[in-house]
Design brief:
This protein is of the alpha/beta class. The chain has two domains: 135 residues, Aspartate Aminotransferase, domain 1; 242 residues, Aspartate Aminotransferase, domain 2. The chain is 44% helix and 14% strand. The strands form three sheets. A seven-stranded mixed β-sheet has the order 2-8-7-6-5-3-4, sandwiched between helices. A three-stranded antiparallel β-sheet has the order 9-12-11. A two-stranded parallel ribbon has the order 1-10. Helix 5 runs parallel beside helix 6. The longest helix is centred in the C-terminal third of the chain and has 24 residues. It is globular, with a radius of gyration of 21 Å. The model has no long low-confidence stretch (mean pLDDT 96).
Length: 394
Amino acid sequence: MPPPSPLPGARLLFSIDPSVSYLNHGSFGAVPVPVQRAQQRLRDEMETNPHRFFAVGLLDRVGHVRRHLAAFLGADPQGCALVRNVTAGVALAVEAVAPGAGDEILVTDHGYGAVAMEVARRCREAGAAAVTVPVPLDASDDETVAALRAAVTNRTRLAIVDHVSSATARLFPVGRIVAALREAGVPTLVDGAHAPGMLPLSLDTVDADFWVGNLHKWAFAPRGTGLLCVAPRWRDSIRPPAVSWQHDVGYPLAVEFQGTDDYTAWLAAPVGVYMLRTLGMDTVRAHNVGLAAYGQQIVASALGVDIAALPASPGVSMRVVPLPADLATTMAEATALRLLIAEKLGIEVAVNAWRRRGYLRLSGQVYNRAEEYERLADQLPVLLAAVRARAAGA
Protein backbone atom coordinates (compact mmCIF):
# COMPACT_ATOMS: atom_id res chain seq x y z
CA MET A 1 0.00 0.00 0.00
CA PRO A 2 1.77 3.21 -1.09
CA PRO A 3 1.25 6.38 0.97
CA PRO A 4 -0.81 9.24 -0.48
CA SER A 5 0.95 12.20 -2.02
CA PRO A 6 1.42 15.16 0.34
CA LEU A 7 -0.92 18.13 -0.07
CA PRO A 8 1.24 21.00 -1.35
CA GLY A 9 1.79 23.67 1.30
CA ALA A 10 -0.45 22.03 3.91
CA ARG A 11 2.34 21.50 6.43
CA LEU A 12 3.05 25.25 6.49
CA LEU A 13 -0.49 25.94 7.71
CA PHE A 14 0.32 24.55 11.16
CA SER A 15 2.62 25.48 14.04
CA ILE A 16 3.72 21.89 14.72
CA ASP A 17 7.32 21.71 15.99
CA PRO A 18 9.35 20.45 13.01
CA SER A 19 11.56 18.43 15.37
CA VAL A 20 8.54 16.36 16.50
CA SER A 21 6.65 13.79 14.45
CA TYR A 22 3.13 14.58 15.59
CA LEU A 23 1.10 11.45 14.79
CA ASN A 24 -1.57 12.10 17.40
CA HIS A 25 -3.97 14.62 15.89
CA GLY A 26 -6.91 12.65 17.30
CA SER A 27 -6.23 13.54 20.93
CA PHE A 28 -6.24 17.34 20.88
CA GLY A 29 -6.28 18.36 17.24
CA ALA A 30 -3.95 21.05 15.93
CA VAL A 31 -5.25 24.54 15.21
CA PRO A 32 -4.14 25.92 11.83
CA VAL A 33 -2.26 29.23 11.84
CA PRO A 34 -5.03 31.17 10.01
CA VAL A 35 -7.52 30.01 12.65
CA GLN A 36 -5.14 30.93 15.47
CA ARG A 37 -4.86 34.41 13.99
CA ALA A 38 -8.62 34.76 13.60
CA GLN A 39 -9.11 33.88 17.25
CA GLN A 40 -6.39 36.29 18.32
CA ARG A 41 -8.08 39.11 16.39
CA LEU A 42 -11.28 38.32 18.28
CA ARG A 43 -9.41 38.39 21.59
CA ASP A 44 -7.94 41.75 20.64
CA GLU A 45 -11.43 43.02 19.81
CA MET A 46 -12.71 41.77 23.16
CA GLU A 47 -9.98 43.50 25.13
CA THR A 48 -10.24 46.76 23.21
CA ASN A 49 -13.76 47.30 24.58
CA PRO A 50 -14.96 44.40 26.75
CA HIS A 51 -18.36 45.93 27.43
CA ARG A 52 -19.13 46.40 23.76
CA PHE A 53 -17.90 42.88 22.94
CA PHE A 54 -20.14 41.19 25.52
CA ALA A 55 -23.13 43.52 25.51
CA VAL A 56 -23.56 44.45 21.83
CA GLY A 57 -24.31 41.71 19.33
CA LEU A 58 -22.52 38.79 20.98
CA LEU A 59 -25.61 36.59 21.13
CA ASP A 60 -26.30 37.20 17.44
CA ARG A 61 -22.74 36.27 16.56
CA VAL A 62 -22.93 33.08 18.62
CA GLY A 63 -26.23 32.24 16.93
CA HIS A 64 -24.66 32.73 13.52
CA VAL A 65 -21.85 30.33 14.39
CA ARG A 66 -24.35 27.78 15.71
CA ARG A 67 -26.31 27.87 12.46
CA HIS A 68 -23.13 27.66 10.39
CA LEU A 69 -21.82 24.61 12.24
CA ALA A 70 -25.23 22.93 12.28
CA ALA A 71 -25.43 23.30 8.50
CA PHE A 72 -21.91 21.86 8.17
CA LEU A 73 -23.02 18.77 10.12
CA GLY A 74 -26.43 18.44 8.50
CA ALA A 75 -28.27 19.11 11.75
CA ASP A 76 -31.32 21.14 12.74
CA PRO A 77 -29.93 24.48 14.02
CA GLN A 78 -32.94 24.88 16.33
CA GLY A 79 -31.83 21.77 18.19
CA CYS A 80 -28.13 22.60 18.49
CA ALA A 81 -26.15 24.35 21.20
CA LEU A 82 -22.48 25.24 21.31
CA VAL A 83 -20.63 23.55 24.18
CA ARG A 84 -16.98 23.34 25.20
CA ASN A 85 -16.47 19.68 24.35
CA VAL A 86 -18.17 16.31 24.08
CA THR A 87 -17.81 15.51 27.77
CA ALA A 88 -19.70 18.69 28.67
CA GLY A 89 -22.44 17.82 26.19
CA VAL A 90 -22.71 14.27 27.53
CA ALA A 91 -23.19 15.62 31.05
CA LEU A 92 -26.06 17.84 29.87
CA ALA A 93 -27.72 14.97 28.00
CA VAL A 94 -27.46 12.48 30.85
CA GLU A 95 -28.86 15.05 33.24
CA ALA A 96 -31.78 15.68 30.85
CA VAL A 97 -32.67 11.99 30.79
CA ALA A 98 -32.72 12.06 34.60
CA PRO A 99 -32.06 8.41 35.47
CA GLY A 100 -33.67 7.29 38.70
CA ALA A 101 -33.22 4.51 41.22
CA GLY A 102 -33.08 1.13 39.51
CA ASP A 103 -32.61 2.58 36.00
CA GLU A 104 -29.77 1.54 33.70
CA ILE A 105 -27.57 3.43 31.25
CA LEU A 106 -25.85 1.36 28.58
CA VAL A 107 -22.33 2.10 27.37
CA THR A 108 -19.96 -0.05 25.32
CA ASP A 109 -16.47 -1.09 26.31
CA HIS A 110 -15.13 1.12 23.51
CA GLY A 111 -16.41 4.30 25.18
CA TYR A 112 -14.26 7.25 26.16
CA GLY A 113 -13.00 7.18 29.74
CA ALA A 114 -14.34 10.58 30.79
CA VAL A 115 -17.78 9.72 29.41
CA ALA A 116 -17.79 6.48 31.39
CA MET A 117 -16.79 8.44 34.50
CA GLU A 118 -19.63 10.91 34.01
CA VAL A 119 -22.14 8.09 33.59
CA ALA A 120 -20.82 6.31 36.68
CA ARG A 121 -21.04 9.51 38.73
CA ARG A 122 -24.60 10.25 37.67
CA CYS A 123 -25.67 6.66 38.27
CA ARG A 124 -24.17 6.65 41.77
CA GLU A 125 -26.05 9.81 42.64
CA ALA A 126 -29.35 8.47 41.30
CA GLY A 127 -29.08 4.87 42.48
CA ALA A 128 -28.98 3.74 38.86
CA ALA A 129 -26.58 1.30 37.20
CA ALA A 130 -24.06 1.79 34.42
CA VAL A 131 -24.08 -1.33 32.23
CA THR A 132 -21.11 -1.96 29.94
CA VAL A 133 -21.88 -3.87 26.75
CA PRO A 134 -18.83 -5.71 25.34
CA VAL A 135 -18.41 -5.37 21.58
CA PRO A 136 -15.57 -7.36 20.00
CA LEU A 137 -13.08 -5.33 18.02
CA ASP A 138 -13.85 -7.36 14.91
CA ALA A 139 -17.64 -7.40 15.41
CA SER A 140 -19.69 -6.85 12.25
CA ASP A 141 -22.32 -4.13 12.11
CA ASP A 142 -25.01 -6.78 12.56
CA GLU A 143 -23.25 -8.18 15.63
CA THR A 144 -22.76 -4.71 17.10
CA VAL A 145 -26.42 -3.79 16.75
CA ALA A 146 -27.47 -7.17 18.14
CA ALA A 147 -25.19 -6.85 21.18
CA LEU A 148 -26.68 -3.50 22.15
CA ARG A 149 -30.24 -4.59 21.47
CA ALA A 150 -29.76 -7.72 23.60
CA ALA A 151 -28.55 -5.62 26.53
CA VAL A 152 -31.78 -3.60 26.69
CA THR A 153 -34.10 -4.30 29.62
CA ASN A 154 -37.23 -2.61 30.89
CA ARG A 155 -34.94 -0.55 33.12
CA THR A 156 -32.79 0.88 30.30
CA ARG A 157 -33.08 4.67 30.36
CA LEU A 158 -30.38 5.62 27.83
CA ALA A 159 -27.75 4.05 25.57
CA ILE A 160 -24.49 5.82 24.74
CA VAL A 161 -22.48 4.79 21.67
CA ASP A 162 -19.48 6.20 19.85
CA HIS A 163 -19.60 7.45 16.29
CA VAL A 164 -15.87 6.73 16.08
CA SER A 165 -14.32 5.25 19.22
CA SER A 166 -11.25 6.89 20.69
CA ALA A 167 -9.24 3.95 22.04
CA THR A 168 -10.04 1.51 19.23
CA ALA A 169 -10.62 3.85 16.23
CA ARG A 170 -13.74 1.88 15.33
CA LEU A 171 -16.60 3.26 13.23
CA PHE A 172 -19.94 2.30 14.76
CA PRO A 173 -23.14 1.87 12.69
CA VAL A 174 -24.84 4.64 14.64
CA GLY A 175 -27.83 5.04 12.33
CA ARG A 176 -28.73 1.37 12.66
CA ILE A 177 -28.13 1.39 16.41
CA VAL A 178 -30.36 4.42 16.90
CA ALA A 179 -33.15 2.83 14.84
CA ALA A 180 -32.93 -0.52 16.63
CA LEU A 181 -32.97 1.01 20.09
CA ARG A 182 -35.78 3.38 19.20
CA GLU A 183 -37.90 0.35 18.30
CA ALA A 184 -37.12 -0.93 21.80
CA GLY A 185 -38.16 2.40 23.33
CA VAL A 186 -34.63 3.42 24.36
CA PRO A 187 -33.21 6.90 23.63
CA THR A 188 -29.66 7.17 22.35
CA LEU A 189 -26.74 9.52 22.88
CA VAL A 190 -24.02 9.43 20.21
CA ASP A 191 -20.51 10.49 21.22
CA GLY A 192 -19.32 12.06 17.97
CA ALA A 193 -16.04 13.47 19.30
CA HIS A 194 -14.07 12.47 16.19
CA ALA A 195 -16.78 12.69 13.54
CA PRO A 196 -16.93 16.40 12.48
CA GLY A 197 -14.48 16.99 9.67
CA MET A 198 -13.37 13.35 9.58
CA LEU A 199 -16.62 11.93 8.21
CA PRO A 200 -19.18 13.36 5.78
CA LEU A 201 -22.15 13.85 8.09
CA SER A 202 -25.88 14.33 7.81
CA LEU A 203 -27.03 14.15 11.41
CA ASP A 204 -30.67 14.49 10.50
CA THR A 205 -30.42 11.00 8.99
CA VAL A 206 -28.77 9.60 12.14
CA ASP A 207 -31.75 10.94 14.11
CA ALA A 208 -30.29 10.27 17.57
CA ASP A 209 -31.98 11.74 20.63
CA PHE A 210 -28.66 13.37 21.50
CA TRP A 211 -25.51 13.76 19.41
CA VAL A 212 -22.46 15.74 20.46
CA GLY A 213 -19.19 16.25 18.60
CA ASN A 214 -15.99 18.24 18.76
CA LEU A 215 -15.10 20.69 15.99
CA HIS A 216 -11.60 21.19 17.38
CA LYS A 217 -10.25 17.82 16.33
CA TRP A 218 -10.80 17.19 12.62
CA ALA A 219 -12.65 20.39 11.59
CA PHE A 220 -9.78 22.76 12.44
CA ALA A 221 -11.71 24.86 14.99
CA PRO A 222 -10.02 26.31 18.08
CA ARG A 223 -10.11 24.03 21.11
CA GLY A 224 -13.21 24.31 23.22
CA THR A 225 -15.67 24.08 20.31
CA GLY A 226 -18.31 21.37 20.45
CA LEU A 227 -21.87 21.10 19.22
CA LEU A 228 -24.70 19.36 21.06
CA CYS A 229 -27.68 18.35 18.92
CA VAL A 230 -30.89 17.46 20.74
CA ALA A 231 -34.16 15.98 19.45
CA PRO A 232 -37.27 18.16 20.01
CA ARG A 233 -38.72 16.03 22.82
CA TRP A 234 -35.66 16.60 25.01
CA ARG A 235 -34.86 20.28 24.45
CA ASP A 236 -36.91 21.60 27.34
CA SER A 237 -35.13 19.13 29.64
CA ILE A 238 -31.64 20.49 28.95
CA ARG A 239 -30.40 22.50 31.91
CA PRO A 240 -27.38 24.83 31.64
CA PRO A 241 -24.40 24.22 33.90
CA ALA A 242 -25.12 27.51 35.70
CA VAL A 243 -27.91 30.08 35.67
CA SER A 244 -26.97 33.18 33.72
CA TRP A 245 -28.72 36.06 31.97
CA GLN A 246 -30.21 33.97 29.15
CA HIS A 247 -31.62 31.31 31.46
CA ASP A 248 -35.25 32.28 30.92
CA VAL A 249 -34.81 32.19 27.15
CA GLY A 250 -34.25 28.44 27.34
CA TYR A 251 -32.34 26.11 25.08
CA PRO A 252 -29.97 26.72 23.34
CA LEU A 253 -28.99 30.21 24.53
CA ALA A 254 -29.34 29.29 28.20
CA VAL A 255 -26.64 26.65 27.64
CA GLU A 256 -24.38 28.79 25.45
CA PHE A 257 -24.34 32.07 27.36
CA GLN A 258 -22.37 31.67 30.59
CA GLY A 259 -21.57 35.27 31.42
CA THR A 260 -18.00 36.47 30.97
CA ASP A 261 -16.78 33.30 29.30
CA ASP A 262 -14.30 33.41 26.42
CA TYR A 263 -16.40 32.96 23.27
CA THR A 264 -13.57 33.58 20.81
CA ALA A 265 -13.01 29.89 20.06
CA TRP A 266 -16.62 29.53 18.92
CA LEU A 267 -16.56 32.74 16.91
CA ALA A 268 -13.41 31.62 15.06
CA ALA A 269 -14.70 28.11 14.37
CA PRO A 270 -16.18 28.91 10.92
CA VAL A 271 -12.67 29.90 9.78
CA GLY A 272 -11.59 26.31 10.44
CA VAL A 273 -14.50 24.93 8.42
CA TYR A 274 -13.69 27.39 5.64
CA MET A 275 -10.08 26.24 5.61
CA LEU A 276 -11.14 22.59 5.44
CA ARG A 277 -13.39 23.39 2.50
CA THR A 278 -10.66 25.41 0.79
CA LEU A 279 -8.24 22.49 1.00
CA GLY A 280 -11.04 20.26 -0.29
CA MET A 281 -12.88 18.09 2.21
CA ASP A 282 -12.81 14.98 0.04
CA THR A 283 -9.12 15.52 -0.70
CA VAL A 284 -8.24 15.98 2.97
CA ARG A 285 -10.26 12.96 4.05
CA ALA A 286 -8.81 10.67 1.39
CA HIS A 287 -5.27 11.82 2.26
CA ASN A 288 -5.73 11.34 6.00
CA VAL A 289 -7.38 7.92 5.72
CA GLY A 290 -4.71 6.69 3.33
CA LEU A 291 -1.86 7.99 5.45
CA ALA A 292 -3.19 6.45 8.68
CA ALA A 293 -3.70 3.12 6.92
CA TYR A 294 -0.16 3.25 5.52
CA GLY A 295 1.24 3.99 8.97
CA GLN A 296 -0.72 1.12 10.51
CA GLN A 297 0.52 -1.29 7.87
CA ILE A 298 4.22 -0.54 8.15
CA VAL A 299 4.31 -0.26 11.96
CA ALA A 300 2.37 -3.51 12.37
CA SER A 301 4.74 -5.19 9.94
CA ALA A 302 7.77 -3.91 11.86
CA LEU A 303 6.34 -5.23 15.13
CA GLY A 304 5.30 -8.53 13.58
CA VAL A 305 1.68 -8.23 14.71
CA ASP A 306 -1.42 -9.29 12.80
CA ILE A 307 -3.92 -6.58 11.89
CA ALA A 308 -6.11 -8.71 9.64
CA ALA A 309 -8.83 -9.00 12.29
CA LEU A 310 -8.96 -5.28 13.01
CA PRO A 311 -11.99 -3.37 11.71
CA ALA A 312 -11.61 -1.60 8.38
CA SER A 313 -13.65 1.40 9.61
CA PRO A 314 -13.97 3.13 6.22
CA GLY A 315 -13.41 6.87 6.30
CA VAL A 316 -11.65 6.87 9.68
CA SER A 317 -8.32 8.68 9.70
CA MET A 318 -7.05 6.88 12.81
CA ARG A 319 -5.73 3.33 12.99
CA VAL A 320 -4.65 1.10 15.87
CA VAL A 321 -1.74 -1.33 16.04
CA PRO A 322 -1.76 -4.05 18.73
CA LEU A 323 1.35 -3.98 20.88
CA PRO A 324 3.10 -7.12 22.18
CA ALA A 325 0.78 -8.76 24.69
CA ASP A 326 2.90 -7.96 27.76
CA LEU A 327 3.14 -4.20 27.12
CA ALA A 328 0.78 -1.35 28.11
CA THR A 329 -1.84 -3.63 29.63
CA THR A 330 -3.05 -0.89 31.99
CA MET A 331 -3.66 2.80 31.39
CA ALA A 332 -0.76 3.68 33.71
CA GLU A 333 1.56 1.50 31.63
CA ALA A 334 0.11 2.90 28.39
CA THR A 335 0.73 6.47 29.55
CA ALA A 336 4.29 5.63 30.56
CA LEU A 337 4.99 4.06 27.16
CA ARG A 338 3.52 7.04 25.30
CA LEU A 339 5.78 9.40 27.26
CA LEU A 340 8.80 7.19 26.58
CA ILE A 341 8.12 7.16 22.83
CA ALA A 342 7.85 10.96 22.88
CA GLU A 343 11.04 11.37 24.91
CA LYS A 344 13.26 8.84 23.17
CA LEU A 345 11.98 9.01 19.60
CA GLY A 346 10.52 12.51 19.35
CA ILE A 347 7.25 11.02 18.11
CA GLU A 348 3.82 11.75 19.56
CA VAL A 349 1.33 8.88 19.38
CA ALA A 350 -1.61 7.72 21.47
CA VAL A 351 -1.27 4.53 23.50
CA ASN A 352 -4.31 2.94 25.12
CA ALA A 353 -5.03 -0.18 27.15
CA TRP A 354 -8.20 -1.91 25.98
CA ARG A 355 -9.26 -5.27 27.42
CA ARG A 356 -5.81 -5.49 29.02
CA ARG A 357 -4.07 -5.24 25.66
CA GLY A 358 -1.98 -2.29 24.61
CA TYR A 359 -2.84 -0.50 21.36
CA LEU A 360 -0.85 2.17 19.57
CA ARG A 361 -3.15 4.64 17.82
CA LEU A 362 -1.90 6.56 14.79
CA SER A 363 -3.62 9.57 13.24
CA GLY A 364 -3.19 10.93 9.74
CA GLN A 365 -3.42 14.66 9.05
CA VAL A 366 -2.36 16.95 6.23
CA TYR A 367 0.77 18.09 8.08
CA ASN A 368 2.06 14.51 8.39
CA ARG A 369 4.45 12.80 5.98
CA ALA A 370 5.00 9.12 5.18
CA GLU A 371 8.58 9.27 6.44
CA GLU A 372 7.35 10.05 9.96
CA TYR A 373 5.52 6.71 10.14
CA GLU A 374 8.50 5.00 8.51
CA ARG A 375 10.79 6.36 11.22
CA LEU A 376 8.40 5.07 13.88
CA ALA A 377 8.35 1.65 12.21
CA ASP A 378 12.15 1.65 12.13
CA GLN A 379 12.79 2.76 15.72
CA LEU A 380 9.84 1.45 17.76
CA PRO A 381 10.80 -2.26 17.73
CA VAL A 382 14.20 -1.43 19.24
CA LEU A 383 12.62 0.73 21.94
CA LEU A 384 10.01 -1.90 22.83
CA ALA A 385 12.69 -4.58 23.01
CA ALA A 386 14.59 -2.44 25.51
CA VAL A 387 11.44 -1.91 27.57
CA ARG A 388 10.74 -5.64 27.69
CA ALA A 389 14.35 -6.42 28.57
CA ARG A 390 14.26 -3.99 31.50
CA ALA A 391 10.96 -5.48 32.68
CA ALA A 392 12.40 -8.99 32.50
CA GLY A 393 15.45 -7.97 34.52
CA ALA A 394 13.47 -6.12 37.19
